[in-house]
């Protein structure tokens, strides 16, 4: 028996060494190639086509990822994260190409664009409409259009679809996972404390379905967003209302009229201009821009390479005495402490605002918010730093992106001006407390806990049942924090406490609805927010500077090394379809349960909107 285990161990250990050696030599080979290979300059072809091919979700700020971990994931083809695309990169490339004589047309390849916030899609659509004023054509082609992809494709001069493809408007929906039965089976006790009848962030842990209040709020919100989506699309193209009404009889009428052929239905209802195979579209683009014989395709440059080809003046050579409008991006869940990009840390975000305030060239600050909220304490730390900027005479504009709700509204409330997109999801002014206790769960497997304390004021212990004193303490803290929230909004928005309470209680609003209720000052996008900041600061000539966290010298070294090395990795298709229904479901479970690990408020009190569309 001993020899068998010894033999098995040798096999396991040998396999381990082989795998480690393979990984080591892969990394070494790629690094050597990157170090000794000269970088060819990126050239923009004359009369070339700019290919807009975003791969991922449009975001205001990319989530920070350890460069070594990212390199290994890409090398092994095992990354399961949704890729991210900077909205500013997409818009900037379109704006630059409009006046670039080397660019003759724009080609939309949206097959890998993930669902993104409606206001972000609107920003790209506006850039596309502006590009068309140059007289350069925009051509879009796809095998199949999801509705968010079609939203952008509708702004093309020529919109093509594969003869075997289709376009479907399914409307907007919200699906919430519920864990009550799971927690019951695990004998985990969710301890819930809340204020506001619409504050439904805790429902997944205490129910198996949506409450009437949550359903009412969701239907009100998503109906408004869908009306906006449908209005925008039908304004871009004269589409037959049969396919946009959302009624099954209308849809089936158009579907049956096309004999069940979805591509033919898209053509007959004016969703597309023509049905084209990939080869036909490719030949048309070659005729338009010329033939790239080396690549055997049309002469083109992708938008990311196009941006990389644009030489920028090094920051050290830029003038330092110009007025600046500082932009601080607050994207992600709000948590206590310092966090990397993609998560809003109370300390780290406050530090960025403080850095902007202490710069003599800063004349105004734009806080760009894309957040469903989180820790009430961390939100307050950020708000206090905003007040310091205002006391220093620096006006602050809160610029709301896709989501600025709960804690996201908390940090916006005291801005001199709040600018939201009509489709921004905001409000959700409410508070709850949440923690899990495991006394029954541990007891079921024979584990028990007992504690000795020197006072009656014992700390919360997740291994033991909460005492009535502890429950009363947390509930009172939640109620007090809600009153603080109401007071903050009341003072900042010049509203009475009762008027704020009327539109609060966790209720969610679109930007347009929030403006009608006094929670927002102006409807607009990021550029409008910058213009508002310049107006408040009374400046005409200025630079816009994004204040970002600085990487340590070690982080910068590895980032530069592995970012350049990843260019030489073979393209992997393993696990590449993160939108597959099964992986999408698993990722949803993972993301919704991962929210709990970021609940680190010192008082276990949160202003978080679980029912809002998440930034990622």
Describe it for me?
The chain has 616 residues and is an alpha/beta fold. Helix content is 44%, strand content 17%. The protein contains 22 helices and 24 strands. The strands form 6 sheets. Strands 12, 15, 17, 18, 19, 21, 22 and 23 form an 8-stranded mixed β-sheet that branches. A 6-stranded parallel β-sheet has the order 8-6-5-4-1-11, sandwiched between helices. α4 (118-132) links the parallel β4 and β5. α13 (346-358) packs parallel to α14. Mean pLDDT is 84; it is low at 564-579.
Short description:
By secondary structure, the chain is an alpha/beta fold. The protein has 22 helices and 24 strands.
Total helices: the number is 22
Low-confidence stretches: 564-579
Task: Provide the gyration radius in Å.
Answer: 27 Å
**Total number of beta strands:** 24
Shape: globular
Strand residue content: 15-25%
Profile the largest sheet: 8 strands, mixed
Helix content: 40-55%
Overall pLDDT confidence:
84
Question: Pairing-aware structural class of the strands and helices?
Answer: alpha/beta
GO molecular function, one term: serine-type peptidase activity
Pfam families: Peptidase_S49
Active site: 199, 406
Family: Belongs to the peptidase S49 family.
């Amino acid at each position: 028996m001993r020899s068998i285990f010894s033999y098995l161990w040798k096999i396991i250990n040998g396999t381990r060494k082989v795998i480690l050696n393979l990984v080591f030599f892969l990394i070494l080979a790629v690094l050597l190639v990157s170090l000794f290979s000269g970088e060819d300059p990126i050239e923009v072809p004359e009369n070339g086509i700019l290919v807009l091919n975003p791969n991922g979700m449009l975001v205001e700020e990319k989530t920070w990822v350890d460069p070594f971990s990212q390199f290994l994931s890409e090398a092994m083809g095992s990354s399961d994260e949704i890729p991210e695309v900077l909205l500013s990169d997409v818009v900037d490339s379109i704006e630059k190409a409009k006046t670039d004589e080397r660019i003759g047309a724009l080609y939309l390849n949206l097959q890998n664009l993930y669902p993104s916030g409606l206001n972000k899609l609107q920003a790209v659509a506006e850039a596309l409409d502006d590009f068309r004023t140059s007289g350069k054509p925009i051509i879009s082609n796809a095998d199949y259009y999801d509705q968010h992809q079609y939203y952008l494709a509708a702004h093309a001069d020529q919109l093509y679809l594969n003869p075997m493809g289709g376009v479907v408007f399914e409307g907007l929906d919200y699906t919430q996972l519920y864990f009550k039965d799971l927690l019951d089976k695990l004998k985990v006790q969710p301890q819930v404390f809340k204020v506001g009848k619409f504050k439904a962030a805790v429902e997944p842990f205490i129910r198996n379905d949506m409450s009437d209040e949550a359903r009412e709020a969701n239907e009100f919100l998503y109906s408004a967003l869908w009306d906006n989506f449908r209005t925008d699309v039908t304004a871009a193209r004269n589409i037959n209302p049969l396919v946009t009404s959302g009624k099954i009889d209308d849809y089936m009428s158009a579907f049956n009229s096309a004999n069940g052929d979805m591509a033919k239905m898209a053509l007959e209802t004016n969703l597309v201009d023509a049905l084209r195979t990939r080869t036909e579209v490719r030949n048309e683009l070659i005729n338009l821009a010329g033939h790239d014989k080396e690549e055997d395709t049309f002469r083109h440059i992708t938008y990311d390479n196009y941006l990389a080809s644009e030489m920028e003046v090094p920051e050290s050579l830029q003038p330092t005495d110009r007025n600046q409008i500082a932009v601080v991006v607050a994207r992600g869940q709000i948590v206590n402490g310092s966090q990397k990009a993609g998560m809003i840390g109370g300390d780290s975000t406050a530090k960025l605002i403080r850095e902007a305030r202490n710069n003599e060239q800063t004349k105004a600050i734009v806080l760009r918010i894309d957040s469903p909220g989180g820790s009430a304490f961390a939100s307050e730390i950020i708000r206090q730093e905003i007040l310091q900027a205002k006391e220093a005479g620096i006006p602050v504009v809160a610029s709301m992106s896709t989501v600025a709700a709960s804690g996201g509204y908390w940090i916006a409330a005291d801005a001199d001006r709040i600018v939201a997109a009509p489709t921004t999801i905001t409000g959700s002014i409410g508070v709850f407390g949440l923690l899990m206790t495991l006394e029954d769960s541990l007891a079921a497997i024979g584990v028990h806990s007992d504690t000795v304390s020197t006072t009656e004021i014992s700390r919360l212990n997740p291994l033991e049942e909460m005492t009535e004193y502890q429950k009363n303490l947390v509930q009172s803290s939640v109620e007090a924090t809600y009153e603080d929230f109401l007071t903050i909004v009341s003072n900042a928005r010049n509203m009475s406490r009762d008027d704020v309470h009327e539109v609060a209680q966790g209720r969610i609003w679109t930007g347009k609805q929030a403006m009608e209720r006094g929670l927002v000052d102006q409807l607009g996008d990021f550029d409008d927010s910058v213009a508002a900041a310049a107006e408040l600061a009374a400046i005409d000539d200025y630079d816009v500077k994004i204040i970002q966290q600085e990487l340590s010298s070690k982080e910068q070294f590895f980032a530069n090394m592995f970012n350049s090395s990843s260019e030489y990795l073979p393209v992997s298709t393993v696990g590449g379809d993160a939108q597959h229904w099964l992986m999408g479901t698993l990722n949803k479970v993972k993301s919704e349960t991962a929210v709990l690990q970021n609940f680190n408020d010192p008082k276990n009190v949160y202003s978080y909107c679980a029912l809002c569309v998440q930034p990622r």
